[in-house]
Design brief:
Helix content is 41%, strand content 15%. It is an alpha/beta fold and 508 residues long. About 2% of the residues have low confidence.
Length: 508
């Protein structure tokens, strides 16, 4: 509601102020227009004050909006004595507002959705209980509303987490109108510790249309490496030169789990580095997971396709955990189960190129899953999101213990769609525009998104873990940050990863 109130009230304020100046010699009209401006401006300030964002961002938006108000009102004041000029200016300005302004204003703040319409159709609610027993209180609610209740998650080591105490609750269609009432009754039960919606996740696949400079790679023979501006900007070519020259060998074969839409295991540029854990995870109807897998660990120096940071399978292998269906949809429960499954498979890095807008209070199950993965030795890397907003509202990027990744374009600036990471503990940047990688059929394709930036970071982290398996999330972030490249909007994006420099640091 506030996201719609903000642009409408601001545009009414703009109209009222401009007409106030225009009719300032007409006392009656001037009074009406001043009232329109003042009422609209009060509503604008209210919507700005209570919308979900940081104070610093709100002040920046307020400065921008006041500057626009001042400029446009002065333009109308200057041309007001010529009706023809006023008409031309009004048409030009409102044409600009129609095609650019409203969308710009509407997308200024994140539209955080907490509606049950955005939850999973089968199990709408996740609850944490004191133990995993279904008590009499829950049995009463099951009978009253016809609910379905089952354990939300399963894991190999229940002693390492409280996730085994979470239940998934399904609400039948006849009781969906009483969802809020059910939620309140669940919260009142003494056995209930925490309640959250099982929010839906939808992949946003952004096709690439931009042009980038072709850069010849000197240290790999993959034919499409020259089209991988992002891999080169992140020191991919330099990394392979460093590894070839140093002759160092990894201490272990690290495993990167792509938790996504599945991976086409038989792709020509992946199969030599891919480890199957279940045949259902080895197919990919959307192409998103396969694209991410190629960025993280396509076979390099095989004379085929694209290059990654990974020299060969003795350093890093790729596996897949499927949590997104063929239509590009998943949910919080399946994603969390995917993190658990990846950790139980022995993943050293878990790559999450997915997520959704949410709120801080909905993070407990995610936090438990990340904590479980960390205890199992895995580092979790997640996409910051593609809403051009603050990633503090985007899960699982905003979960404690996650390395969140923003996207950079060929101009070394934040990609227009990328969320920012200034309010997150572990925010870094990587190329995410016009990224060439593997795709089903088998094929290759360029896509945009923080989804593409994330596996680039995951691939580097996997290589780092191959040499130093004991690295923690904080230590990895510190290395990526200290060796990273500062950008113009460094606080908003984080530093852009520099693969060769990061690897040299862990060799010291």
């Amino acid at each position: 509601m506030l996201n719609l109130l903000y642009p409408i009230s601001y545009l009414l304020s703009l109209t009222g102020l401009a007409l106030w100046f225009y009719f300032k010699d007409n006392r009656s009209m001037s009074r009406k227009m001043s009232s329109l401006f003042l009422i609209s401006f009060f509503v604008y300030l209210f919507s700005l004050a209570f919308t979900d964002s940081t104070l610093s961002f709100k002040l920046l938006i307020l400065f921008r909006d006041l500057l626009i108000l001042g400029v446009i009102s002065q333009i109308f004041n200057f041309v007001r004595r010529s009706p023809v000029v006023v008409l031309i200016v009004a048409i030009a300005l409102y044409g600009l507002i129609q095609f650019i302004g409203f969308n710009m204003l509407y997308s200024t703040f994140p539209q955080v959705q907490q509606s049950i319409a955005l939850t999973n159709d089968n199990f709408e609610i996740l609850i944490e209980t004191e133990d995993d027993d279904i008590s009499k209180g829950y049995v009463r609610l099951i009978k009253k509303y016809g609910l379905t209740i089952q354990p939300a998650f399963h894991m190999a080591d229940a002693s390492a987490t409280r996730l085994d105490n979470f239940l998934a609750i399904g609400i039948p269609e006849k009781s969906e109108s009483k969802t809020k009432e059910i939620l309140q009754e669940l919260k009142r039960l003494k056995e209930t510790i925490h309640v959250e919606y099982n929010e839906v996740i939808q992949l946003g696949i952004l096709e690439s249309t931009e042009q980038t400079e072709v850069r010849n790679a000197e240290n790999v023979n993959d034919p499409m490496a020259s089209q991988q501006w992002g891999w080169q900007a992140a020191q991919g070519d330099q990394l392979h030169a460093f590894l070839a020259k140093s002759g160092v060998k990894p201490r272990k074969r690290a495993l990167i789990a792509i938790v996504d839409s599945g991976v086409r295991a038989e792709h020509e540029d992946l199969r030599a580095q891919f480890i199957s854990n279940n045949r259902k995870n080895d197919v990919d109807s959307s192409g998103h997971g396969t694209h991410c897998a190629g960025i993280a660990g396509a076979v390099t120096n095989n004379g085929l396709g694209v290059a990654s940071f990974v020299p060969e399978a003795s350093f890093v292998s790729i596996t897949s955990v499927k949590v997104i269906n063929a239509k590009g949809f998943g949910n919080q429960q399946t994603t969390i189960q995917g993190i658990i499954d990846a950790a139980d498979l022995g993943a050293d890095v878990i790559s999450l190129s997915l997520g959704s807008l949410s709120s801080d209070k909905h993070q407990k199950a995610y936090e438990e899953a990340v904590r479980y993965a960390n205890r199992k030795g895995a580092i979790v890397v997640a996409a910051a999101g593609n809403n051009n907003q603050n990633a503090i509202n985007h899960s699982p990027a905003n979960v404690k213990g996650v390395i969140a990744v923003s996207a950079i374009g060929p101009d070394m600036q934040k990609a227009s769609f990328s969320n920012t990471v200034e309010d997150l503990d572990f925010g870094v940047a990587a190329p995410g525009v016009k990224i060439m990688s593997t795709y089903p059929n088998p094929a290759y394709k360029e896509l945009n998104g923080t989804s593409m930036a994330t596996p680039m970071v995951a691939g580097l982290v996997g290589l780092m873990k191959a040499f130093r398996p004991e690295l923690t999330t904080r230590e990895v972030y510190q290395i990526l940050h200290e060796s990273g490249k500062s950008l113009g909007d460094g606080r908003g994006t984080g530093r852009m990863i520099q693969a060769a420099d990061a690897l040299e640091r862990i060799m010291d």
